[in-house]
Amino acid sequence: MLPNSNEIQYLCRGTADFELLPSLPKLTPFSQQACDFLAELSSEIMKNPESRQYPDVITFGFFCRKGNVSRLKEAYQGKIENRLGRGVSFHIAPSNVPINFAYSMVAAFLAGNACIVRASAKPFRQIDLVCECMNRVFAQDRFKSLHDYITVVRYPRSKEINDYFSSLSDVRVIWGGDATISEIRQSPLPPRSIEIAFADRYSIAVFDAKAMCAAENMTQIARDFYNDTYLYDQNACSSPRLIYWLGSEEEAQQASERFWTAIHESLQGKYTVEPVIAVDKYTAACRCAIDLGAEIKPWRDNLISRIRVSHLRADVIDYRCAGGSFFEYAATDLNALRDIITRKYQTISYFGEIKDKIAEFILSNGLSGVDRIVPIGKTADFTLVWDGYDLISQMSRIIDF
Question: pTM for this one?
Answer without folding.
Answer: 0.91
